[in-house]
Design a protein that fits this description.
This protein is mainly beta. Helices cover 8% and strands 35% of the residues. It is globular. Keywords: Glycoprotein, Signal. Belongs to the multicopper oxidase family. This is L-ascorbate oxidase homolog.
């Protein structure tokens, strides 16, 4: 980060920071994406490094900062990164998914340029091409509050990022071949905390240090591809303060279930005997439990961590109850000075209900995952480019799925899956999971109100159980086996936005779709023009650029 700060200071001294956004500072990054050899589980294997780091570098930003990030792809395959949870207001051009962006070809580079507008919170970035996410290329992305906005807790002594993930010793190419050959992924080989698993032999270096009596902020994110991971710290309680951009009611937890793609911020006070302690993560909802640990060291510590690890909870009823304990902090201000609770989402009329049912198919020996019977494939021409250039009809069809699928999902169809959505409509989305395994869904471009998760199937009568007062506004929601989840949001961010399973084998094999949100005015007030440096591919390559939007 020191290099970043110097560049920002140089920009300040040169007077060039007053650019597109006036007073909002610019952060500049150059990232080299390469293969490298690491041994996260004790076996040397190929991983994806960013600037020789695994996990990748932390992005440390503040609300409204402009991020200019030049990615050099030194892999042997096309590559993209997405900034999971960054809303990219008016700017789906920077989302870094195959429905909006041409991938960065090997030996070339692309500069992302986006603003973390009106956001705070804890997020992650990760690759969206192939099975690259299983090999690395992920890391933490934090958006700090501006100094003039009060935060509902005292400044911590330090701010730490904890990246959890399940891990395979097979390469991303091998995993991809399994899926292409019609097989599903077996259980992961292990789990990691910041790319490591302490051996407990007395030689482990600490991941973090704490001064006695001081309070620290830990941002805990699950960047894995398959498993819910439970997180706890020996002898220390965790006070939950934020999740995915929302301040929450500050309940205290001994353990937290972090579902795939989710992030939590907790406060931990160094109030125990001065020695080493383990932070522990382990897989949930599997017969075989995989565990990883990392050391937190008191600065004046004398003694090793106890080999007795705190136990994880059992069963998913515990996890569901924990979800129900999460509450939006109605009086705290997030990125703007007005209290979060001043937005009364519960009193807005729903204009559309979309129920998304996940399913799997093995027809013809090929494994595919689907939503409402359609298994998405990315066309050679990104959907957003096809739409912007006026050739959508040559690339995909809109609304090939029904808002309310029939009770029995028929044969799975493999094609691009794109829904049209009316700009600024307030919409209810139901995720219904008929399978025996966990699900976790993420929506790009927005945060949503996670108003309910319940066992069984959804009916309109279930709305009486919604939390319409203080549900947390977030970006990723889990769905338990044979259960459903409901979210509410206003589609007020024009662009092409991905809804996807965070279980990456399911995403890769089609369990995702795109929502096209077009402003009727086609105005710069609602959406930015295509960037000058946008990569072009497929059917739009060589076409004349469309007339730009104006105010």
């Amino acid at each position: 980060m020191a290099g970043v700060m110097i560049m920002v200071l140089l920009c300040l001294s040169a007077g060039t920071m007053l650019g597109v956004q006036g007073e909002d500072p610019y952060l500049f990054f150059t990232w080299n994406v390469t293969y490298g050899t690491r041994s996260p589980l004790g076996i040397p294997q190929q991983v994806i490094l960013i600037n020789d780091q695994f996990p990748g570098p932390n992005i440390n930003s503040t609300s409204n900062n402009n991020i200019v990030l030049n990615v050099f792809n030194n892999l042997d395959e096309p590559f993209l990164l997405t900034w999971s949870g960054v809303q990219q207001r008016k700017n789906s051009w920077q989302d870094g998914v195959l429905g909006t962006n041409c991938p960065i070809l090997p030996g070339t580079n692309f500069t992302y340029h986006f603003q973390v507008k009106d956001q705070i919170g804890s997020y992650i970035y990760y690759p969206t091409t192939g099975m690259h996410r299983a090999a690395g290329g992920f890391g933490g992305l934090r958006i700090n509050s501006r100094q003039l906005i009060p935060v509902p807790y005292a400044d911590p002594e330090d701010d730490y990022t904890v990246i959890l993930n399940d891990w395979y010793t097979s390469s991303h190419a091998t995993l991809r071949k399994y899926l292409d050959d019609g097989r599903s992924l077996a259980r992961p080989t292990g789990v990691l905390i910041n790319g490591k698993n302490a051996k407990g032999d007395g030689k482990d270096e600490p991941l973090f240090t704490m001064k006695p009596g001081k309070t620290y902020k830990y941002r805990i994110c699950n960047a894995g591809i398959k498993n819910t991971l439970n997180f706890r710290i020996q002898g220390h309680a965790m006070k939950l303060v934020e999740m995915e951009g929302s301040h929450v009611v500050q309940n205290v937890y001994e353990a937290l279930d972090v579902h795939v793609g989710q992030c939590f911020s907790v406060l931990v006070t160094a109030n125990q005997a001065p020695k080493d302690y383990y932070m522990v993560t382990s897989t949930r909802f599997n017969k075989q439990v995989l565990t990883a640990k990392g050391i937190i060291r008191y600065t004046n510590g004398k003694g090793p961590a106890s080999p007795e690890l705190p136990e994880a909870p059992v069963g998913w009823a515990w996890s569901l109850n924990q979800f129900r304990s999460f509450r939006w902090n109605l009086t705290a201000s997030a990125a703007r000075p007005n209290p979060q609770g001043s937005y009364h989402y519960g009193s807005i009329n729903i204009t559309r209900t979309i129920k998304l049912v996940n399913s799997a198919s093995r027809e013809g020996g090929k494994l595919r995952y689907a939503l409402n019977g359609v298994s998405h494939v990315d066309p050679e021409t990104p959907l957003k480019l096809a739409e912007y250039y006026g050739i959508a009809d040559k690339v995909f069809k809109y609304n090939t799925i029904k808002d309310m699928p029939s009770a029995k999902i028929g044969k799975v169809v493999t094609q691009p899956n794109v829904l049209n959505q009316t700009f600024r409509n307030f919409v209810e989305i139901i995720f219904e999971n008929h399978e025996k395994s966990m699900q976790s869904y993420h929506l790009d471009g927005y945060s949503f109100f996670a108003v309910a998760i319940e066992p069984g199937t959804w009916t309109p009568e279930k709305r009486k159980n919604y939390n319409l007062l203080d549900a947390v506004s977030r970006t990723t929601i889990q769905v338990f086996p044979k259960s459903w989840a409901a979210i509410l949001l206003t589609f007020d961010n024009a662009g092409m936005w991905n809804i996807r399973s965070e279980m990456w084998e399911k995403t890769y094999l089609g369990q995702q779709l795109y929502v096209s949100v077009l402003s009727p005015e086609l105005s710069l007030r609602d959406e930015y023009n295509i960037p000058d440096n946008a990569l072009l591919c497929g059917k739009v390559k060589g076409l004349p650029k469309p007339k730009p939007y104006t105010i």
